[in-house]
Amino acid sequence: MALIFERIHTEGIAEISYLIGDDSVGVAAVIDPRRDVEVYLGLARERCVSITHIFETHIHADLVSGARELGDRCQTAKIFASVEGGADYGFEIEGVHGGDTFSLGELTITARHTPGHTPEHMTYEATEPGKDEPYAVFTGDSLFVNSAGRPDLLGKDADKLASKLYDTLFDYFAKLDPGVIVYPSHGAGSPCGADIGDRLESTIGYELRHNPYFKEKKREDLVELALATAPPEPTYYQRMKKLNAEGPEVLSHLPVIPALAYAEFKKRLDAGDCVLIDTRPTLAFGGGHVDGAINIPGEPMLTVWSGWLLEQDTEILLVLDKDTSAENIAALFIRSGYTKFAGYLVGGMGAWDNAGQRLAEIRQMTVHEVETCSDDLQVLDVRSPSEWESGHIPCATHVFLPEIQNGVNGLDKSVPIVTYCLTGYRAGVAASLLQKRGFKDVRTMPGSWKAWMAEGLPASKGEETN
Fold first, then answer.
1. pLDDT per residue over 47-87, tens digit each?
2. Could you tell me if 205 and 178 are in contact, meaning their C-beta atoms sit under 8 angstroms apart?
3. For 259-354, which CATH class?
4. Tell me: domain 3-246, CATH 3.60.15.10, correct?
């Protein structure tokens, strides 16, 4: 017998899912699958196992669950989801209660009700033959490396959930053996918890010593910590939660993005019923793009920022960096629920150029050029509030990137404006949004805050200017 363990780390949304099982009997389970499920099917084939169980730790808010998709593709697999805390689903599941056990050959999985992040949340223990305690816990969004699941995503009773989180941490996790391995469902960068650590796993003992949540011995102090440190909630979280409870549509394959020759692409663009997304890198977009396009580069963070910025039923028209990237781009979009594609421009910007069409541009400025900012230049920091407070360019104004959609009061559309973030990705997105909103002279700062600090340029802390 060999116990199977495969960790699937999905960058951008910082989600972690798992394939676990026993190859001696050829069975395996997937915990918290993402929607583009080919990765699990491929791993199962490599390890010569059948996926028979699909475990959900909770109703997710940060991505479209792949449980139904995977169940449809596997046929033999059942979806196991918590019915604790009043959880209800609009699709067929096998209801899980705390204490339920499941056999995967010589591997035993035990469900433990661990509310706090959500009322129904489950942790799954993994136990070896002949042992009476787990060697590992798959903690979902209840316990993270250096953090714990935020309790405020339901929009109500956040204080009550934070109190339940206290019980989960101290009455369950803290009583496990210190050597038990912690396998969470998110890593650093996820807004599902505050300041999640960079490591993808930990142990109970390490977290007891170092996790700030275990340092808050009083219930009221932990409740205050959990509510005060939660990062900004992405706008798409509420609709993801509703979608996952009702049951996402089974796609059976990645959506096909139609290939549109220039004439058909221009016709769809002129109809004005699609949003135009250019997925090329920021610098390429700045050098020349279709006027009115939003730049969300085709990296893993596309999932997050499309979720923040686009309406759910939006039909998407695309300019790609390469025609061959269409499938990868589709996978990034479906993770946050986007499945309607009008098509992509065959040949990309080369086809647009060859047709003699006009180009819009976004100029680049080095950090040293920005350092000389004066009344003739507006400097806009589009990072999160916590990033801004930890340090920013002295003459900058702060508007968190998603808030640009709601207006930019206090900024002058006729005065040149330069955007920056941590490295430049969000700055490019912001610049395209500002240009689309009518700003006449928009620029970005390559390298952004990292380049600014690397050059030892002046920084301010704390004070909010907008």
1. 999 999 999 999 999 999 999 999 999 988 999 999 999 99
2. yes
3. alpha beta
4. yes
